[in-house]
Write a structure and sequence with these properties.
single chain; 170 residues; mainly alpha; de novo design (two linked rop proteins); 2 domains; 5 helices; 69% helix
């Protein structure tokens, strides 16, 4: 699926839910007197969705990758602080909520990593660098690869190298 807006990205939506959960968590009276921890946890949680959005809006694959890794780092930061909270006696009654948020932060980090991995293997430089000529070339190569896969399937043979990759042009 092609996403036109960052708001459509499932990982951005999950990051927003993590942010909401963190804000609900730190509203608990257990965070009274824990201002620095509360504030840093909130900032790191907000940073995840913001970095995903900023990278998406930048318009190049390389910039998106950079901001996805920032988002992943912030998800790790949230998880680290939640792990600390689990080990502090002030937060004993919040262990279930903390565990749920920690799992969500971990899931987001995995999703961001998967998205970054798929982008690193992409030959598209990003919307900002996509011209009519590069778009046409990309579409032609995709059609050619699809045709090779169809021909190989008709012959019952696997393509060289294993899996339906684009063939070099002559």
């Amino acid at each position: 699926m092609k996403y036109e807006r960052f708001e459509q990205l499932p990982v951005w939506q999950a990051a927003i839910e993590l942010g909401r959960g963190v804000f609900r968590l730190v509203d608990d009276r257990s965070f009274g007197g824990q201002g620095d921890l509360r504030d840093q946890l909130q900032r790191a949680a907000v940073s995840i969705s913001n970095n995903i959005a900023e990278g998406f809006e930048r318009g190049t694959t390389q910039e998106l990758l950079t901001f996805l890794y920032y988002a992943r780092g912030s998800a790790g930061e949230v998880r680290s602080m939640l792990l600390l909270c689990e080990r502090l006696p002030y937060f004993d009654r919040l262990k279930s909520d903390i565990s749920d948020l920690k799992s969500l932060a971990e899931s987001i980090a995995r999703q961001v990593r998967a998205r970054a991995d798929s982008l690193q293997n992409s030959d598209i430089p990003g919307q900002r660098r996509l011209t009519d000529a590069t778009r046409a070339d990309y579409q032609a190569r995709r059609r050619a690869a699809a045709l090779w896969r169809q021909l190989d399937a008709l012959r019952g043979a696997a393509p060289p190298g294993g899996g339906g990759e684009m063939r070099p042009s002559a």
